Amino acid sequence: MFHTLLVAIDGSEIGMKALERAIEMARGWKADLHAVYVIETGLISSVPMDNTWEVIHSLLEQEGTTFLEKAEAKASEAGVALKKHLLQGHAGNEILNLADSEKIDLIIVGSRGKSDIDRILIGSVSGHVVKYSTVSTMVVRV
Asked: How many CB atoms lie within 10 A of CB 28?
């Protein structure tokens, strides 16, 4: 049995399946549930910080906030409280750092992100989490 769960969401179909599984488990085990959305900034760290970057960052932040609010509503419908985290950086590292700081004992991630191009550009977040996590990790597949 797990007491504190962390689900990574990104708005993808698989991310939503991971959220559904996390809600089911949190409800069944009466566990605390955290959801994280990470604004992936690793790809654009060398881009000059101008108005274009500010607009892109703002859009990504809005997207993350929207997905986290949807996740919170979905959890609430199931009678589960959800703590939201909007972070930025390397998604895999941010998930692992959050898991450590929140004393998470199960991380739940989707098997891939929004598109296959993400895997080529930033690598597999789920693969990174599985490889470097010091706690149990569940990978959800569709």
From this structure: 10
